[in-house]
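Question: what's this shape?

___
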Amino acid sequence: MEVITHALPGLLEFRPRIFGDPRGAFFESFSARTMEWLGLPRHHWVQDNQSSSKAGTLRGLHFQRPPHAQAKLVRVAQGRALDVVVDLRRRSPTFGQHAKVLLTAELGNVFYVPEGFAHGFVALEDNTLFLYKCSAYYAPAAEGGLRWDDPALGIDWGFAGEALVSPKDAILPTLAELASPF
């Protein structure tokens, strides 16, 4: 397995060893032992989520406020997506900065996002199947988010054309308007 660190503290990407033969391919997409070996906090993963999206669908940037804050393990089982996170930890030297990871079914890569980050992705192909584990249950009263197109964030989402965004995501606050709960 290859482990890739990112400039924002706490983010890790893993690229598993994929075993292929004429029948197809196999890899471990999750292992608690691997998470422990990497020194990640011991999470009790309580919820798995899945979405299917058309190319250009942008979901995010979302987070949940404490005490319902979520760490996430995200990956793509079909297609490709650009995954983006923004550091919302007020005391972090990287507060307001973002990181991006290209997640693909072919690579089987997994991105670990700790609590304290807003998270979103854009599907780069039709029928992109996005999967993620959460360390806390979804709590509607605790949900929050940031505008995906906030000029202060300067995120290049890596696609041409108009993003398909939910009405709820289109009215999220900018970073300057957000009182970060982290």
Summary: The two ends are 32 Å apart (CA to CA). Residues 7 and 99 are 8 Å apart (CA to CA).
